[in-house]
Write a structure and sequence with these properties.
Layout (H helix, E strand, L loop, with lengths): L5 H8 L1 H12 L4 H8 L4 H8 L5 H4 L8 H22 L4 H25 L4 H7 L9 H5 L4 H11 L3 H7 L2 H6 L2 H23 L1 H26 L6 H7 L9 H7 L4 H8 L6 H5 L9 H15 L8 H25 L15
Helix pairs in contact: 2-20, 6-7, 6-20, 7-8, 7-13, 10-11, 13-14, 14-19, 15-16, 19-20
């Protein structure tokens, strides 16, 4: 579908769900809501403030005493309920797009189960820790696998992640490979595939999602590099974990893969004009600020997707915005629970 013509037919199948989604987006917490939450003295106060928002129905029957994890779980239920409703109503190709948005959570869940199986963790406990957006019908059969070979076979047969495993990993890799290398190998295959799918959809989806996924690919390349400094991971091994697209691809990847400290990483990133403003907000050596600045950039980009219509990127953006909001709520709740209110603004990323 060529750019511009999708507006003629988009509303026939997808207009209803886009309207629903924009309604959900209007229910995100405002700056005033965050100001109220930051004044709370107890978790009960946080619950009381949140009951006046879209989270109200999910928090209404929570018994005391409250825990941060309970509040976060209930807020996550709101996102999951929204997503499941939209997925149930979606027609192709939107249904496929919504599934792809959740594959990242599936990868995290499968890696969690692989790690738990290696360490003989209880399978019920593993299932409880899985992200609800990454659940699939056969996930419980994975959790009771008795060996890596059996687990690998079940993943290939029963999950949408089968192509990513079969093309990149063997059953021996599940036993021997570092968990984070396994996760990043799967994420690379997933992001490359998602980018290809969005590109084939064409129109506004290809344009806007191309920018969102390029940022995600570049952020992962940056994090892989920073986390591998001082480890046994070789420069070539680093490059194999970078996605095959993004603003840094391919020349920025070459420089990143050879970086040996944060300042070299920064120099490589600053050669890409889009990332200069992020690093300009940091003094030299302030690498601890980077995660928050990247979340702020992702949030800004997600909000911009709503400036256009007739594309699917708004669904991906809504998931990212709601997940950031839940991280904010978790940070505020932890600061209140641990009596660290002086640090409460350090971790909040406002959805502007």
């Amino acid at each position: 579908m060529s750019l511009g013509l999708e507006s003629l037919t988009f509303n026939i199948k997808d207009g209803y769900l886009e309207a629903i989604l924009r309604g959900h987006k209007a229910g995100l917490l405002t700056t005033a809501d965050y100001n109220n939450l930051c004044q709370c003295e107890t978790l009960e106060d946080i619950k009381l403030n949140l009951t006046a928002t879209d989270y109200g129905p999910f928090l209404a029957d929570l018994p005391s005493p409250l825990m941060t994890s309970t509040i976060v779980d209930k807020c996550t239920e709101k996102l999951v309920a929204d997503w499941k409703y939209m997925r149930a109503q979606a027609e192709e190709p939107l249904a496929t797009f919504l599934d792809y948005c959740t594959y990242g959570h599936m990868i995290d869940n499968v890696v969690l189960i692989v790690t738990g199986t290696l360490h003989d963790r209880d399978h019920t406990e593993l299932i409880e820790k899985c992200h609800p957006l990454g659940m699939f019908d056969s996930i419980e059969t994975l959790a009771v696998a008795t060996s890596m070979r059996e687990l690998y076979r079940l993943v290939l047969v029963d999950t949408p992640l089968a192509p990513y495993f079969s093309m990149n990993l063997t059953s021996e890799d599940l036993d021997e490979m570092n968990v984070e290398i396994m996760r990043n190998t799967l994420y690379k295959a997933y992001l490359d595939d998602f980018q290809k799918v969005c590109s084939e959809m064409g129109g506004g989806t290809a344009e806007v999602m191309g920018e969102m996924l390029a940022f995600e690919a570049d952020r992962r390349a940056l994090n892989i590099t920073l986390n591998s400094i001082g480890t046994d991971l070789t420069f070539d091994d680093r490059r194999k974990l970078y996605s095959n697209f993004g603003l840094l691809y391919p020349h920025g990847h070459q420089e990143l893969s050879m970086a040996e400290d944060f300042n070299q990483v920064r120099a490589a990133m600053e050669k890409c004009p889009a990332y200069v403003p992020i690093f300009n907000k940091m003094g030299y050596g302030e690498s601890q600020m980077l995660d928050k600045l990247l979340y702020e950039e992702e949030t800004t980009r997600a909000m911009f997707t709503f400036e256009q219509q007739f594309h699917y990127a708004v669904f991906y953006a809504y998931m990212k915005l709601r997940e950031q909001e839940i991280r904010n709520i978790m940070w505020i709740s932890e600061c209140v629970a641990q009596n660290q209110k002086g640090r409460i603004h350090d971790g909040i990323v406002f959805l502007l």
